[in-house]
């Protein structure tokens, strides 16, 4: 909670007093402010609601729901809600810009998130995180951090580190949708529970450890699959409208000539 409050505090100071003092921008887009705050609220809900209690003490499936919020919902809101003028001063040193360009490159961002996400689901490491608050906090920080990188090619507001063009966005999302199939398959189709912590946890909702694990795998994959499908449709619609606008402009130029 302290880290979350610090993140929100730094953002508000940046878009408020620092913006005015260093004349970074004339005004703040209220939609961006609301979007960033919405991302903070999603993280707060994931970490401070009954969902957190259920995931920490009882159900693997609720832990997967928590991870969906932390990696698929909150990060794009945080990126979309961050103005370009707030980030640009941090990139003025050449070394800083070079590092940021490497980290936000689609290949790097994709690999970083999926490696981190997969490694943290190795049973030994996963069980350790559930038995140690410090390790669990590290897990969430790494997941959210690499998820921000993963979403950057789709949601960036910064021209210097731009979004992918619409066709490449669609390809990127398609690859994201299939990237976790191995983890999903191992978790969902295992013949016995993989995580001892949830085997020993009190049983609620009449869910056996194995059924709970299978449900968690389904939430992770099917939930993200539906989410990515909706994004594909939205991006295709935007691409179509963009192409139509270009064709209309070309037609008008031809008529004038």
From TrEMBL:
<feature type="transmembrane region" description="Helical">
    <location>
        <begin position="137"/>
        <end position="154"/>
    </location>
</feature>
<feature type="transmembrane region" description="Helical">
    <location>
        <begin position="166"/>
        <end position="190"/>
    </location>
</feature>
<dbReference type="Pfam" id="PF09678">
    <property type="entry name" value="Caa3_CtaG"/>
</dbReference>
<protein>
    <submittedName>
        <fullName>Protein CtaG</fullName>
    </submittedName>
</protein>
<dbReference type="GO" id="GO:0005886">
    <property type="term" value="C:plasma membrane"/>
</dbReference>
<dbReference type="InterPro" id="IPR019108">
    <property type="entry name" value="Caa3_assmbl_CtaG-rel"/>
</dbReference>
<keyword id="KW-1003">Cell membrane</keyword>
<feature type="transmembrane region" description="Helical">
    <location>
        <begin position="33"/>
        <end position="55"/>
    </location>
</feature>
<keyword id="KW-0472">Membrane</keyword>
<keyword id="KW-0812">Transmembrane</keyword>
<feature type="transmembrane region" description="Helical">
    <location>
        <begin position="218"/>
        <end position="240"/>
    </location>
</feature>
<feature type="transmembrane region" description="Helical">
    <location>
        <begin position="107"/>
        <end position="125"/>
    </location>
</feature>
<keyword id="KW-1133">Transmembrane helix</keyword>
């Amino acid at each position: 909670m302290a880290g979350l409050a610090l993140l929100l505090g730094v953002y508000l100071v940046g878009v408020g007093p620092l913006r005015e003092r260093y004349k970074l921008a004339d005004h703040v887009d209220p939609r961006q402010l609301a979007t960033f705050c919405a991302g903070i609220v999603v993280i707060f809900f994931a970490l401070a609601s009954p969902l957190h209690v259920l995931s920490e003490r009882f159900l693997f499936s609720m832990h997967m729901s928590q991870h969906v919020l932390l990696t698929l919902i909150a990060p794009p809101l945080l990126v979309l809600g961050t103005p370009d003028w707030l980030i640009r001063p941090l990139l003025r040193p050449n070394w800083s810009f070079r590092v940021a360009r490497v980290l936000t490159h689609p290949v790097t961002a994709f690999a970083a998130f999926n490696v981190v996400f997969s490694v943290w689901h190795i049973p030994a490491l996963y069980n350790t995180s559930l038995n140690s608050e410090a390790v669990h906090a590290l897990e969430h920080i790494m997941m959210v951090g690499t998820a921000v990188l993963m979403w950057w090619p789709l949601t960036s507001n910064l021209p210097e580190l731009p979004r992918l063009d619409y066709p490449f966005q669609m390809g990127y999302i398609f690859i994201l949708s299939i990237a976790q199939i191995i983890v999903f398959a191992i978790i969902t189709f295992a013949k016995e529970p993989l995580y001892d912590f949830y085997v020993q946890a009190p049983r609620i909702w009449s869910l056996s450890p194995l059924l709970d694990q299978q449900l968690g795998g389904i939430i992770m994959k099917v939930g993200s699959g539906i989410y990515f499908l909706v994004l594909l449709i939205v991006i295709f619609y935007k691409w179509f409208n963009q192409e139509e606008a270009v064709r209309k402009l070309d037609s008008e130029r031809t008529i004038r000539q």
